[in-house]
Design brief:
471 residues, mainly alpha, 18 helices
Length: 471
Amino acid sequence: MASEKVETVIAGNYLEMEREGNSKSIKGKLSKLFWHGGSAYDAWFSCASNQVAQVLLTLPYSFSQLGMLSGILFQLFYGIMGSWTAYLISVLYVEYRTRKEREKVDFRNHVIQWFEVLDGLLGKHWRNAGLFFNCTFLLFGSVIQLIACASNIYYINDNLDKRTWTYIFGACCATTVFIPSFHNYRIWSFLGLLMTTYTAWYLTIASLIHGQVEGVKHSGPAKMVLYFTGATNILYTFGGHAVTVEIMHAMWKPQKFKLIYLIATLYVLTLTLHQLLLFIGPLATCYLHSNALFAPKDRFQRHCCRPHAYSSGLEHILITYPNYCFITFGFACTPLYFVWEKFIRVHETKSMLKRALTRLPVVIPIWFLAIIFPFFGPINSTVGSLLVSFTVYIIPALAHMITFSSAPARERPPSFLGGWVGHYCINTFVVVWVLVVGFGFGGWASMLNFIRQIDSFGLFTKCYQCPTHKA
């Protein structure tokens, strides 16, 4: 009888929500099609579109810092490592939720988050660490989205400076307060991934068609600081699973998540590896800029990045990419909304209008920081080294080892990984590597680069890296 009872406790019983989505009315069908997304496919769209995000625009710059060979190797290496730690997070989530649902805890009006998983499995000190690193990472992730939006739209219309565009897009992105949870990002996730795929392949095909730009050098960096800055940007690219728990919680059956992130990573690699071809196309000289879509209109610089043969296509990308920034802003900011709702005790209220109004104060500091630090390339590597290192690599690996350290641990790892001994060896390697290379060397290089940007351009820069128009 005991074993039979255990079998009936399955994390994430969404039968009631499924019945809501099965309405036969036209409104119900449309809602199910565009709004209620809890399938494995929805989770895959969310993971894939959220993983690469704005980092796609900084990859050519990162390759110039790393060199072509290191760029390929780091992508493959961190792609595998990121998928591994996402798997660990999924195991810990299911373990936590199963324990709580055995205690008859109801999560129908409550979104489980990473810090709560750590609290339930390991205690308040782990909760505090997870809350600090995760919230800080998501805060600056949201800041980066606003900066990227302003930067990209500026290349379409430079009648307004980047700071003004930041004001405008800050107001636009604030409308994400009306999206209840990741369960309601179905159409946005799909559109986001579609836009990213188009952008990545368009730039690559344009580079192949137009061929080599004269005078471009493909050698790696001459300085260690550039090398590790580029490496931490790749670390960030495949460390976008700070919202993994929220995405899993939005699924009808979160147990199916374990391989989803790996499949999403493999797809993202098809979008990022061929970015190396930007070295040999018309964008080759633009890898000196942190934004691959850098497109000055000045007649002295036009030959660098904006040949007439594909300028219209670039403008098409620049029009659609801010829409994608809006989506990824929502992905980064929604977990912060949840934390704030729980802090002021309105998270479980059914009034979406009340929740939306209480979320607005979260957008204000994000807006302000985007105006202070308008250079998202250096912020990417800094966030990757100081925050992503702990949030999605070190803490999950340590938490998994400690949670399942006892002999009667319920879930046994796959035998082809060497059982628990193999698991511990892999987790130990992840912790040591990321702590030394990602946080140590990467933190040193990223902070040095970040400080140089402040010294060169200053805080509250009105138009960062805007071309100087000459007579």
